[in-house]
Design a protein that fits this description.
single chain
């Protein structure tokens, strides 16, 4: 997906989360682009959703284990974080909502995790 679309869709993704019957308790933002992560966090704040961003210098294993142990129930993830995401999802017993913001359609590997809900661009089109 082009960078322009990623930025223009941030508000749409966060509104979708904010308008759910069961709003997320904690939104984790796993994005390579700091500016996109900041925009997602600002949009979460405007919609009264609690969020956090994975700092680039954090150990991947520590970050994944922290997310698994936390109240985080929603992740917004780009392709560069898929390895960490798959690890998190394999450890997480409770259902999570996962937004794959760079995917038009759900990738095949998502079927390995039926307890989790995946959202892609087709869900906001």
């Amino acid at each position: 997906m082009q960078k322009g679309n990623e930025f223009s869709q941030t508000t749409t993704w966060i509104r979708l989360l904010a308008n759910q019957e069961n709003q997320p308790r904690l939104v984790g933002i796993l994005q390579s682009s700091l500016s996109l992560a900041r925009q997602l966090m600002a949009s979460c704040q405007l919609n009264e959703l609690v969020s956090f961003y994975k700092a680039s210098d954090v150990n991947r294993q520590l970050m994944a284990d922290t997310i698994v142990a936390s109240a985080c129930d929603t992740l917004i993830c780009d392709r560069q974080h898929y390895n960490a995401l798959i690890y998190i999802l394999s450890l997480r017993q409770h259902p999570m909502t996962v937004i794959l913001n760079q995917e038009k359609y759900m990738p095949d590997w998502c079927w390995q995790f039926p307890q989790h809900r995946f959202l892609c661009q087709q869900d906001i089109a």
